[in-house]
Amino acid sequence: MLNEKTPHTDSFAPPVEGLGDASNPLLTPFQGIHQTAPFGAVKIEHYLPAFDAAIEEAKQEVQKIIDLPEKPDFANTIVALDLAGERLERIKGIFFNLNSAETCDEMQNIAQEVAPKLSDFGNDITLNEQLFARIKAVFNQRESLVLNAEETTLLEKTYRRFVRSGANLNETDKEKYRAITKELSQLGLTFQQNVLAETNAYELLITDENDLGGLPESIVEMAAQTPKSKEKEGWLFNLQYPSYVPFLKYADNRSLREQMFRASSSRGNHGNEFDNNDVIKRIVELRLEKAKLLGFKTHAEYKLQERMAETPEKVIGFLADLHLKSNTFASAEFKEVQEYAEKSGFTETVQRWDWAYYSEKLKLEKYDFTDEEVKPYFQLEKVIDGVFSLAKRLYGLHLKENKSIEVYHSDVTAYEVLDENDRFVAVLYLDFFPREGKRSGAWMTDYRTQSNVSGNQIRPHVSLVTNFSKPTDNAPSLLTFDEVTTFLHEFGHGLHGMLSQCQFPGTSGTNVYWDFVELPSQIHENWAYEKEWLDQFAVHFETGETMPEELIQKIQKAQNFQAAYMMERQLGFAILDMAYHNSAEPLNGDLKAFEMQAIASTDLFPPVEGSLQSTSFSHIFSGGYDAGYYSYKWAEVLDADAFSVFKEKGIFDRQTADSFRKNILEKGGSEHPMILYKAFRGQEPTVAALLKRNGLM
Fold first, then answer.
1. Average pLDDT, the chain
2. How many CA atoms lie within 13 A of 17 on its CB side?
3. Per-residue pLDDT for 127 more than 70?
4. Across residues 640-661, what is the average pLDDT?
5. d(CA 395, CA 641)
6. Active-site hit among 86, 102, 151, 490
7. What are the sequence ranges of the domains in the chain?
8. Fewer CB within 10 Å, N side or C side of the chain?
9. Could you tell me which CATH class the domain 25-168 is placed in?
10. Does the annotation count 289 as an active-site position?
C-alpha cells in the first residue's frame, strides 16, 4: 500500500526568522548526514508551534508569488508555487508518518487540531483569485511556451489542481468547499484512529494449553512472549497480522477462530465511541457534495478524471469483465473447500472463520505444502539480503546500514542507498514489526521527495513500514511467503520513490495516477516465485541448507491455489468502493444492508451478524484509495504484462531492467502513465497475461 503523498519537502531552508521558537528542531536546518529528520530531538510539544510557524511562512512565500510585479511565467509562478511551503511539507511528513507508525494519544489530539489548520491553508491557496489568475495566464499561453514533457505536465497538473479545488467557484460555493474539505480532513483522521483503537483493544488470552491445538510451535512461542510484558500468564493473541492470520489458518478450536474473526470483522461497528458507521456516512455525503459543487455527478467521476481509467463506466466494466472470467472458477474453489471439510468430518456450512483453516489443509493435501514449511528459509535478515541483492542485480544499487542516521524507534533501521559508482541515491528506513502505536498493514511513504530544480539535486528519504512476525526467545523473525511478497511489494514502491530523476517535486517519485502507482510494487512480487532469486538467500535459519528445489516447485505449483477466490475477494472490495462513491444520491439507511447488496455478486459466504468490513476499510476512508481500490487489479494487468518481458528476456536481464528503470521508475509522474508504459513495453497492456498467470484462461 502507498501512503497518500504530500508535496516536496526540503531540509536546506534557513531558520524561520521571527516565527516560532528558533530552538525548535523542526524550524531549524536539519543537520547530519543527508539532512535527515532529527527524530531524537523532536518532542511532542514541538509540533504545534512548528506547524503554526511553518504555515505562516508558507503563506508569506505564496504571497510573494502573488505580489510579483513581473508578468506571470512558468518559472516565477508554476515552479515557484511547486517549491513553496517546503518546510511545512517536511514537518507534515514527519508528523503524519509518525502518527501512522508510532502514534500516541497526544499525537492523535494534535492531528485533530492541526488538520483543520492545514485544510484552511490549502484552501487559502487554491481559492485565491489573484494566484489562480497568474496560473491561468501561464496555462493559456501553453501552446506558445517552449516546455519539455515534464514541464508541460506540471503546468497542466497545477491548473487542474486549482480548478478541481474550487478555483472557479463563486464566493458562496467557495465557502461551502472550505467547510467540506475541513470536515473531511478531520473525519479521515477519526476513522483511522477508531480502527487503531479497536485493533489494540482486543486480546485473546488463552490459559488452557489444549486450546492451542493445531497452532505451529513458532506461533505458540510468539503468543507466549506477549503476555510477559503485560504481566499475564498464558498465550496472548491479537488482531495484528502476524497473530491473527496464523490463528485463523491453524487453530483447531473453531469457537476461538470464530471469536477472533468476529472481533476483527466488527472493528468500528460496536456502537461505542469508536464506531465508524456515522463517520462513513458523513464522509460519503461530503465527498458527493464536494463533487457536485465542482460540477461532477459523483465522487467517482471526480476522482477518475485524474486516473488512467478516466471514467466510472470504464472501471465498472473492467471489474465486471474480471468477475465474469473468475466467478465460475471461484465458485468451484469454494465448493472444493466445502467438500474437503465434509470429507474431514465437518458437517456444517463453511463459514468465514473456517475458510483459511480448511484451505490450508486442502493446500497441504494437494501440494504437500504449507506456509510453516517455508518459514525456516525466510529469516528476515536473509530476506533483506535477498531483496537488496535483487536491487543490485536489476538496478545496480547497494544499500549500507548507517547507524548515524537517526531513527524514530529502536525497531527501525536506516540505510544509505548508493549506485554502482557509489553516488548517493536515497535514504531508506525499514520498520518491520507491529506495536500498539502502529496501524496495521504495510505501506511505503517518504520524509523527503526527490527533485532537481535548476541543478539543486534533492535526493529522497523513503520509509517502508510493515507488521511482520517478531523474533522470539528461540528463533529469529521468520517470514511467511505472503510476508516475503509484501516486502517485495513495498520495496517496489520504495524503488519508485528512490530512483526518481524528475525536475519537480510535484511530478517526482510516486506522484503518479493511483491506478499506475501499484505497477512498480506489484511487478516486484513476481521474483518471489523464481528459483534463480530464491537460491540467492533462502537458506534454513538453523542448518544453513539452501531451500530444496522440491520446495520451490511446491511454491510455484501452489501459486494459483484459490487464485479465482482471491480475485473475487479483491473485486468485492473494489465493487464496494465504487458503490459508495459512484452514487449520485446521499448514503442513507443501514450500512450492513448496503454492503451486502454491493458485494452480493462476489460474496461466497453466508452473512455474519455484526461483521462489517466497511467500518475498518481504511484504504478508502482514510488511505486515499476512495474510488480507486480497483487500482490493485488494474495494476495487476500492467504488472503481469510487464513481467512477461522479464520472463522472455530473463528475470535478471539488465537491458530489460534498465528500460523499466528509465521509462517507469525514474520518470515518476512526469508524463501520462500510458506514454511511460508504452515506452517500456512497446504496446498497451492486455488482460491476457494476468489471466494466464492466474490460470483463468
1. 95
2. 2
3. yes
4. 97
5. 20
6. 490
7. 25-168, 202-265, 376-563+632-693
8. C
9. mainly alpha
10. no
